[in-house]
Amino acid sequence: MKKLSTTSWKIQAASPSTTARTGFHCPGNGLWRPEDGAADPVFIFEGSLMPASGGVSTVWHLVRDPQG
Fold this sequence. Notes:
Blueprint: E1 19-21, E2 30-34, E3 42-44, E4 59-64
């Protein structure tokens, strides 16, 4: 298996008004909170699939990106 090096990765800051829906790829690293606010924010990596919240599909809002 090929080793991945994270030294050359560039982190692009997503806009604080960024949103993403469950099942779509995360547009940027950061803390994301579900639209209904029923759960604590979770850190999601860019490119990961956005999870469900409480077992249901939701819209996620970026709370804070790793740059700020």
